[in-house]
UniProtKB/TrEMBL annotation:
One Pfam family named in its UniProt record: SBP_bac_1
Signal peptide, first to last residue: 1-20
Keywords (A to Z) from UniProt: Signal, Transport
Family membership noted in the UniProt record: Belongs to the bacterial solute-binding protein 1 family.
High-level lineage: Bacteria, Bacillati, Bacillota, Clostridia, Lachnospirales
Protein name, UniProt field: ABC transporter substrate-binding protein
UniProt-annotated stretches for the region Disordered: 24-55
InterPro entries: SBP
């Protein structure tokens, strides 16, 4: 953790983990004419919405899942998901679910390619940022019939529900949610005499002034601050929220119609961050993405990270324990001590594959995963965050850390990830941040250029 330690990457990027869907047996045709006749028959059946239903009346659907559910022990990705499928199929023998696990590195491109090729899955477990973009491109089945009055009243969170919509229709069915925040090393703070700079009461809010004082004490004691990570898009929501909170800026206007990060608060924040990098309070993260920033924190090389969540805390708990580090989760510091937090929403969508039977079977499967009396609460806990349904109650009773994470829901800010062109905007974010911290552009000019390009991305997507 000391300044003389190297900040080299601890490990190479993990290779993609993709398991095949599996295909049917090869068919042979007696003659070319027979083959053409069979193809015509299949085409006609598909047009009537019967494709995907076997001769035995079993509807087959495919579920693609990012590694969001925690696995038991050292079980590989997909093990727990298969348990869900087995339980569902036991209650619904007329539906067969095929599972394919995808990773966050290659998964998004795989989905896009499959959409274009017409081979995409029926059910996807993901987040609104990607799901709503698929809806905006007309690729999804509307799920309005699943958003009953009883369900929306149970969720009782307008911002979260709006994150699941495109226009007037719902396209993502949510299961769990939690705020993104940051984390500090208690070990480093204690050794640097900086524990008095943070707040451990209630929802632990604190100010930008307190944050700067903490970094000063850490630096004087020889500890490295967190990185201003900006090598790519990975985890970029964390560093954006950190920037906007420092001096009451915002990524977009409240109506989520235009980008506004070049406001007075945004310029002041970027100016201050450049100053912190120059004086060694924070580290130039041009070579790091969000995951690599977290790697440095859990390895003990840095004293804090601006990318944290209860899910990350759960996933990295073993490494933190091995390194003897106690992480303290905190909301982002803000000038007035009232943060505005971005948040994760986990949920499902159904791709429109032109087959009504598969669409209905997919919705039935999603309802089971989210709402089954036994499996619903269990599945929420496996996402390491909180149920969107208030009726599920406290699934982490007695866990003080989870009680803190739950308290942050009151600070949810407007969910801008569903704005048209969001994916394109992200490509402009990290080059702008690099230009500022490397001294290649003044904060105001860099932010003006970023906002102009980001606003054009909205137009391009419409």
């Amino acid at each position: 953790m000391k300044k003389m330690l190297s900040l080299g990457l601890a490990a190479a990027m993990t290779a993609s983990m993709l398991t095949g869907c599996g295909g049917g047996d090869k068919q042979t045709a007696g003659t070319q004419a027979d083959t053409k006749a069979e193809e015509a028959k299949n085409t006609e059946a598909a047009s009537k919405g019967s494709e995907g239903t076997s001769a035995e009346g079993v509807t087959e659907i495919t579920w693609w899942a990012f590694p969001t559910f925690a696995q038991d022990g050292n079980n590989p990705a997909g093990t727990y998901e298969q348990e869900i499928i087995d339980a569902f199929e036991a209650k619904n023998p007329d539906i067969k679910v095929k599972l394919e696990t995808i990773d966050f590195t290659s998964g998004p491109e795989k989905i896009t390619a499959a959409i274009e090729a017409g081979t995409v899955c029926d059910v996807l477990f993901d987040a609104p940022g990607r799901i709503i973009s698929y809806a905006q491109n007309g690729k999804l089945v509307a799920l309005d019939d699943m958003f009953t009055d009883e369900f929306t009243k149970d969720v009782d969170n307008e911002a979260l529900l709006n994150a699941c919509k495109s226009g007037d229709s719902y396209y993502m069915y949510p299961i769990s949610s939690a705020a993104f925040c940051m984390a500090v090393s208690k070990n480093a703070l204690e050794e640097a005499g900086a524990m008095d700079c943070i707040n451990l009461e209630g929802d632990r809010t604190w100010t930008t002034e307190q944050f700067e004082e903490m970094m000063k004490k850490l630096s004087e004691a020889g500890f490295m601050g967190g990185t201003v990570y900006c090598s790519g898009q990975g985890g970029d929501q964390g560093i954006r929220a950190f920037v906007t909170n420092l001096y009451d800026s915002s990524v977009t206007d409240p109506e989520i119609t235009t980008y506004t990060l070049n406001d007075e608060g945004g310029v002041k924040a970027m100016t201050k961050i450049k100053e912190w990098v120059d004086n060694g309070y924070m580290l130039n993260g041009s070579a790091y993405n969000g995951g690599e920033d977290v790697d440095q924190f859990v390895a003990g090389n840095t004293a804090f990270t601006t990318l944290w969540s209860p899910g990350l805390a759960s996933q990295r708990a073993e490494t933190l324990n091995e390194n003897g580090i106690e992480a303290i989760a905190l909301p982002f510091p803000s000038e007035d001590g009232k943060p505005a937090l971005e948040y994760l929403v986990n949920g499902f969508c159904v791709f429109d594959n032109g087959d009504e039977a598969r669409a209905e079977a997919s919705k039935k499967f999603i309802d089971f995963v989210c709402n089954d009396e036994e499996w619903g609460p269990k599945n929420v806990v496996k996402t390491s965050v909180f149920p969107v349904r208030q009726s599920m109650g406290d699934l982490y009773e007695g866990d003080e850390d989870m009680a803190f994470y739950a308290s942050l829901s009151k600070y949810y800010s407007p969910y801008y990830n569903t704005i048209p062109g969001f994916a394109e905007m992200r490509t402009y974010w990290f080059p702008m941040l690099q230009a500022v911290i490397n001294g290649d552009a003044e904060p105001k000019a860099a932010l003006d250029d970023f906002v102009a390009k980001a606003n054009q991305s909205i137009i391009n997507a419409q």
